[in-house]
Amino acid sequence: MSTNNKKLLNAYHVVFLTQSIMIGTGILSLPQKLSSLGYNQTFMPLLFGVIASVTLWPMIWIGSKYPDANLYRINEILLGKWLGKTINFFFILQFLVFSAGIISNYMHLIQSTALPEQTITLPVICFLLLLIYIVSGGIKSIARFCMMTFFITIGMMFFTSWAFQKGEMSHFLPLFNFTGGEFYEAMKKGYLSILGYELIMFYYPYIVQQKKAYKHTLIGIWISIFVCFITTAISVMYYSEWQLKNIEFSVLNLFKAGEFSFVERIDIIGITLWVFLILSSVAAYLWCAKKGVDSLVVKNSNAYLYILAIIIFFVVKMPLSRNFQDKLFTASNYVGYMFIIWPLLLVILYVLRKKKQVQS
Amino acid sequence: MSRKFLCLTSFVVLFLLAGCADKELKVPLEDVGMVGIMAFDYIDEDKTQLTVAIPQYSPQAEQNTQIFSVATDLVSNGIVEIEKLSDKKIVFNQLRVVLVNEELARNGDVLKIIQHLYRNAEVGNKVLIAVVKERGEEMLRYKYPDKPNINFYLNDLLEPSINTAFNPNTNIHDFMYEITNPVLDPILPFIDKNNDKIEIKGVAVFKGNNMFDTIKPEEALLIQAIKGRKNLAPLDINMNQGHGKERLMMDLIENSVKIKSNKNIDTPKLTIKLKIKGTLSEYKGERENKLNTTDSLAVLEDDVNKELEEDIKKFFAKLNDMKVDPSGLSEYFRMYHHGKWKKEMTREIISKLEVDVEVNTSIISTGTLR
Amino acid sequence: MSETTQQVIELLKKEIHGIDDVVIKKVYTEEGNVTVIYISSLVEKMTVQSMIFIPLANHIRQILRVAESVDIKNIEIVLQKLNAGHTLLFFHQLNQLRTIDTYSAPTRSITNTETESTVIGPQDAFTESLETNISLVKRRIQNPLLKTEIRTVGTETNIKISIMYMDNIVNKENLENLRERIDNIDYPYFTDISELKQLIEDNPLSPFPQYYMSVRPDSVSQYLIDGRIVLFMDNSQAAVVCPTSFFEMFISIEDYYNRWSTASLLRMLRFFGFFLTIMITPMYISALTFHPEILPYELLLNLQESRSKVPFPPIIEVLFIELIIEVLREAGSRMPAKVGQTIGIVGGIVIGTAAVEAGLLSNILIVLVATSALLSFLPPIFLMSNTSRFVRYIFILSAGFFGLFGQMLAFAWLINHLQNLKSLGTPYMTPFIPRKATDLLDGVIRFPTKYLMAKKGISRAQKK
Questions:
Q1: What is the pLDDT of residue B33?
Q2: Which of UniProt's keywords are assigned here (chain A) (predicted)?
Q3: pLDDT, tens digit (0-9, with 9 covering 90-100), for A16-38
Q4: Separation in Å, CA of B6 to nearest CA in chain A
Q5: Distance (Å) from the C-alpha of residue B282 to the closest C-alpha of chain A?
Q6: Where are the alpha helices (DSSP H) in C259-336?
Q7: CB of B298 within 8 A of CB of B226?
Q8: Which of A168, B305, C156, C405 lies at a CB distance of 3.0 to 4.6 Å from B359, suitable for a disulfide?
């Protein structure tokens, strides 16, 4: 593993890291999550993009104050050693449960579409082995993987063209036909899908051009937002409101609309190719968890990576009821919002401290 | 070092686990019975007769299609019953056609059946749905002397083709889309066995979740025209516009439609502009020998316009009575309506709807003979 | 005085005891007795005659002027010279030892290449002689900045290798890196340069070749001009080019001789052929075992019919036929050329049709396997075609476990593996992770020749 002070990530790496982490399982069911708005969900991703751009700013700002420290380190500096470490520990737990949630969600989808009547134990093990392989290459290797992921999977946009042809443009109208309650509901459930850009706080110290990091991250965010926007737009055109509400993985059914003369079901190819997107985002989360462990213990060792992967495996395959699992993953999703608010808190703390220092 | 270790362990794990994989019974392709057609027939309120047709590949077998039929209350239960009868594992990933008989469509719960299939990830989107006049089971069991396989026959018949532009080609997604969309009423092709052939007799129109009526192909073609289908060939017109009885057939039709609404729900009014471009392929009537100048063709075009306008108006009058909206006209009012749209509003609009039709036909050519 | 030479000769005779092809001759000349020693297997008779004996008899002054003088007491050097094919001349009267390089071991003449043949372009290929190879390159690059460093490797064999580079273009860091790697080799003997290549690769465990190997002087000189470093070894035909990228494994020098449109077409074919060859047969397994729905109905019924007689699952079926193909290949390459061809055809046709008729295999699979076997021969670099065969087995196994999902996992592995590979410290995946925008001009599509002036990003050439 490279040392902390090494700058590894160039502009392209930052753009595609941000972009690929944001697109995971979330976008698959984004139209369903926004369905309380009905046909008016089309422009929600754009709104999310604006919110993300605004909330990104404190993250970059706090990072620029400590150019060589990741969030774990900043926590320890600003909150004191013990409080910081406790919080870091919770961060690690959150990352593990969150990644387990993504993996479990995707694997169940795979189980119901591509691998029916099979247990997912073995696929999960293989997936995790591959994940470890990617993460053990360090953040630069993950960034490169994200880049390749983008170029390999962007072709899937073409798969939605059949649905686009069949869809009705008139569904976009009328604009702004919703109530405040519906909007709140969609906001609460939908924003999850674009989480992932907050990890910038962890790989910020590795960026070469830290001054331009905000711009590069923004480009990444808006690429993802654009992809989300196309997804919701085509879904709105293609589905009825009932379908938007009741089809869990809308993208999957969008893929189903198409066919080639030699391949009749594109959805299977699309959903298995999706593993790239899942790998790239989970790899980043696991890497962050690994960094967290590094900050807690004295000795760095790759063995922790294996331990973390084993923990994820047990969370995914835990012998508890599916109901409990679902609740846990939903909870961890909402805890994910904490990362949006957390940097604000740190900024306030930082400013208070500065003031104190000036006074004393 | 750790990477080498990782590579090694993954290989070892994979090979060790290869042993476990055998336990997960994977049925190879040749032991799978791929259902091509499902037919649902009405028995009583709770029960339906489920019939499936499975193509048989073995050249030794006497029949090339296996047909199984059971009476059942739930779809999945019926499938289990059929598995008991079959030597193979029944899968639905190549399902192509779902037949529903008229009685079931009128009285039973079609939505539930289709929804069950729609939920199944195995079933693709290519499943075409049709309403059968008599019994679906009979249609499947009948020996069509010149058709090798009922599976391909029915599928090819229902698929989009040039000369059946009136056929809505409703697939499983379209049906779900139309039935759950408040501005639309689903339409399905209506087929019947005619001696040794199967024929698309017309189109079955649903009202709510049940079949309401059937309409003739000529009228169904108007639905497609208003929905914006690009190719409407062949257009068959019976005219009586001051030149005695005339009959003409137009081919290679390009169609474009523009619809404007007055955005008023209480006094709904639509202006429909239909542009039709095509070649005159056949003509029978008084003017048979006079159609070689552009002027005479322009007169004919005007007559065709008038005739089509009348036809469309007549059709809308019928829709007003039936209170169904198969071509989704109320969408043009929903677009401008704030608040939730309900099915009742569609009914109300369609019963009150006034239509202004303007057809603009242009005959490009009359073939290569003068 | 003359005793010293006599003593040295005695000492030498002890050292060369058992080397029976050493010739020791005494010649009486104007300058007194001269003892001539050489190894007859390394020196041709004609050469000795014309370079040594005739001048000795006629104008000995000339020899004394020309011949290199060697410290007579340093027996090690004397022995080394002798083993390198020099002729030793002991002038007893003058008490001097002179040597003349008479190395003239028989070499092969320059012939056509068989492994990398092209239709257009020069047809000469490297031979096993280091001098010939270097001369073949120097003919093409007549520039004093083309440097040739000669070193010896192999602790027991003392084989000469040569590092060639353009001094004004090559990246010095790369050069230093390579020299260091060569210096750190501790390996007793080399019989071919490919052994050396494996020892200095960045990741020796990877199935992918990380340096380019070629026997074509034209392609080697082209890489030299681009700023790469080329390694030659005495007694081995191929030259090693480093660093190189994954994509360059699919580039044939003929691409530059063809028109750009043809060249681009062929490149696309080779490059996507690689992915096809590793994907076709796994796809068959996935489609048949896990996802029959992705195939058209008619094709599926055909498949069902042809599979109905096959007793084992698709994965075994595929492994079986793939192994047969491997056996055919291997047997064909070991057999004498004439027999090999017939056996190949007989084996292919007889085993293929018979297996289908016996119901061991489905006929569609035979088509797929034959296609993928042919596709695997597309890369101009033979090592790459071997790699594609190996990688295919990984894909076959993973498809056997999890169908398309397994294939995608394996694909993700492949991508991650490739992008982490390095060739002499430079990422292997350029130009897909482009280091320079101009790399894309010579990527999957080869742009017209006038746009190809820029050096590739991977060679990290010195900036002018």
A1: 84
A2: Germination, Membrane, Transmembrane, Transmembrane helix, Transport
A3: 999 999 988 888 888 888 888 88
A4: 7
A5: 33
A6: 260-289, 297-307, 314-334
A7: no
A8: B305
Smallest Cα distance from C228 to chain B, Å = 29
Q: Which of A142, A152, A72 is nearest to A283 (CA)?
A: A142
Flag whether pLDDT at C2 surpasses 60.
no
Answer yes or no: do B2 and A117 touch at CB < 8 A. no
**Highest averaged pLDDT of the listed ranges A43-52, C356-365, C455-464:** A43-52
Q: C305 vs B59: CB contact, 8 Å cut-off?
A: yes
Alpha carbons B32 and C314: distance in angstroms, whole number: 14
Could C412 and A123 be called an inter-chain contact, meaning their C-beta atoms sit closer than 8 Å? Answer: no
Q: Are A151 and A221 in contact (CB under 8 A)?
A: no
Q: Does ipTM top 0.85?
A: yes
User: Residue A170 and residue B335: Cβ atoms within 8 Å?
Assistant: yes
| Contact across the interface for C304 and B29, Cβ inside 8 Å | yes
Q: Would you call C404 and A264 a contact, using CB atoms and an 8 Å cutoff?
A: no
**Which chains border B (3 or more CB–CB pairs < 8 Å)?**
A, C
Q: ∠ CA C283-A107-B26 to the nearest 5 degrees?
A: 50
Torsion over CA: C110, C112, C117, C118 (sign): positive
Is residue C297 within 8 angstroms of chain B, CB to CB?
yes
- Tally of domains in chain A: 1
> How many CA within 13 A on the CB side of residue C392?
30
Tell me whether strands C239-242 and C86-91 are parallel, antiparallel or unpaired: unpaired
Residue of A20, A115, A136, A277 to mutate, testing the C interface (most C Cβ within 10 Å of its Cβ): A115
Contact A264 B335 (CB under 8 A): no
**Rounded Cα distance, C109 and C121, in Å:** 19
Measure Cα distances from B326 to B205, B320, B357 in Å. 7, 12, 18
CB A299: neighbour CB atoms within 10 A? 7
Q: Are residues B98 and B124 in contact, defined by beta-carbon separation less than 8 angstroms?
A: no
Question: Where residue A266 sits, what CATH number does that domain have?
Answer: 1.20.1740.10
Give the relative orientation of helices A266-273 and A81-113 as an angle to the nearest 10 degrees: 160
Across the interface, of B4, B55, B91, the residue whose CB is closest to C301 is B55
Can the peptide bond before residue C311 be classed as cis, meaning omega within 30 degrees of 0? no
Token duo for residue B159: 């698929």
| Closest CA in chain B for residue C306 | B30
Q: Please, what are the domains in chain B?
A: 29-215 (no CATH), 228-370 (3.30.300.210)
Cβ neighbors of C55 (< 8 A, separation 6 or more) are C62, C63
Q: What is the CA radius of gyration of chain A?
A: 21
- The answer to whether residue A5 is domain-embedded is no
Model pTM score: 0.89
Chain A residues inside the 8 Å CB shell of C432: 148, 151
Q: HEC states along B38-53?
A: EEEEECCCCCEEEEEE
**Chains touching A by CB (3 or more pairs below 8 Å):** B, C
Q: Is C316 on the interface with B (CB under 8 A)?
A: no
List residues bridging with B276 in a β-sheet.
Answer: B255, B361
Place of tokens 């085993």: C351
Chain B contact for C305 (CB, 8 A cutoff):
yes
Is A3 contained in some domain? no
Handedness of CA B171, B172, B177, B180 (dihedral sign): positive
Range(s) of the domain holding residue A303: 21-359
CA distance C379 to chain A (A): 22
Contact residues, chain A, for C416 at CB < 8 Å = 130, 133-134, 137, 141, 145
Helix/strand/coil for C263:
helix
Q: Do B125 and A243 touch (CB under 8 A)?
A: no
Tell whether C397 lies on the interface with B, counting CB pairs under 8 A: yes
Q: Which residue of B has its CA nearest to C296?
A: B94
